[in-house]
Amino acid sequence: METGHLFAKLELDTSFTSKARIGRHVVTYGAISYFECLGDPVPGELLELLKPEIIRFVVVMGPNQVNPHRDHNILTALNCYFQSGGAITHYWEAPPDCKPITFPGAKTSNIYKDMDLKHLGSFKAHDGEAYLLNVNEIHSVERTSIKTRRFVQLSWKQRKFGEVLETCRAAGL
């Protein structure tokens, strides 16, 4: 099963995440809360190489599942997990006639029903791992424990997954 256009594990030393501190609350979607990331946790050379547009501290609490969806306003995300919580990220493909649902209070239709989708691939992140994600594609998160997930997320609104992945691979990540 080809999943190279959906996600990629990077060989990245994520020990820098230990410097991350939660800042001001930005937004919450269900059980997922996004905060400003304080403490300058990302090494300067990594910032210079990848040039992320947004850096956030992400906290996901409780046993909640994250339904199949496409992220709002970002194309690509690099999640550096320091508490993975045993979660599994799944990627899906929708048939041409499948229409997304608009979440109550949202302006964009980006939620999908599992039964309408074809499973394409998945990964289970572990503490200390980093994954580059194509969040413009349909994905979901299956919680396998009630442990809180915490990670530093670097993201891009304009750069597509393939472009960021190419930069990472050229740098040996």
What does this structure look like?
- By secondary structure, the protein is mostly beta strands.
- It contains two helices and 13 strands.
- It has helices at 44-50, 161-170; strands spanning 7-10, 21-29, 32-38, 54-60, 66-69, 76-83, 88-93, 101-102, 109-111, 118-124, 130-134, 139-142, 149-156.
- It has a seven-stranded antiparallel beta sheet with strand order 1-11-6-13-4-3-2, with helices on one face. Strands 5-12-7-10 form a four-stranded antiparallel beta sheet, with no helix packed on it. It has a two-stranded antiparallel sheet with strand order 8-9.
- β2 (21-29) and β3 (32-38) form a beta hairpin.
- The longest helix is centred in the last third of the chain and has 10 residues, at 161-170.
- The chain is globular and about 45 Å long.
Secondary-structure blueprint of this entry?
Blueprint lengths: L6 E4 L10 E9 L2 E7 L5 H7 L3 E7 L5 E4 L6 E8 L4 E6 L7 E2 L6 E3 L6 E7 L5 E5 L4 E4 L6 E8 L4 H10 L3
Antiparallel strand pairs: 1-11, 2-3, 3-4, 4-13, 5-12, 6-11, 6-13, 7-10, 7-12, 8-9
Kindly list the characteristics that best describe this protein:
Jelly Rolls, mainly beta, four-stranded antiparallel beta sheet, seven-stranded antiparallel beta sheet, 2 helices, 173 residues
Q: Give the count of helical stretches.
A: 2
Global shape: globular
Radius of gyration using CA atoms only:
15 Å
The percent range for helix content is under 10%
Averaged pLDDT, please?
A: 88
| Second rung of CATH, namely the architecture | Sandwich
Written as H for each helix and E for each strand, in order along the chain, the element string is EEEHEEEEEEEEEEH
Percent range for β-strand residues:
35-45%
